C-alpha cells in the first residue's frame, strides 16, 4: 500500500481518479512551491485566485 502512494505517472493517477496518489502529488506540489519562497509567489497567487473563482461559482 505504501509503495502505491507514489504514482509512477501523475497524469494517469488523475485520469484514473486514484485519490491517494492525487493527494500525495498535491502535498508534494505544495511543499515544492513553499520551498521556492519568493519565487513561488506567483504560483501561490494563482492558487488563491483559482480558489476565489471556485468560491464565487459555488456561491452562485
Structure characterization notes:
The radius of gyration is 14 Å and the shape is flat. 2% of the residues are buried. The mean pLDDT is 90. The protein is built from three helices and no strands. By secondary structure, it is mainly α. The termini are far apart.
What is the overall number of helices?
Answer: 3
Classify the secondary structure makeup into a structural class.
Answer: mainly alpha
The Cα radius of gyration reads 14 Å
N-to-C order of helices and strands: HHH
End-to-end separation in angstroms reads 40 Å
Percentage of residues in DSSP E strands: under 5%
Oligomer: single chain
Give the averaged pLDDT, no decimals: 90
How is the main sheet built? none
According to DSSP, the number of beta strands is 0
What overall form do the CA principal axes indicate? flat
Low-confidence stretches: none
Helix content: over 70%
Could you list some keywords that capture this structure?
60 residues, mainly alpha, 3 helices
Give the structure's gist in a few sentences.
The protein is mainly α.
How are the elements arranged and paired?
Elements: H1 10-16, H2 19-35, H3 41-59
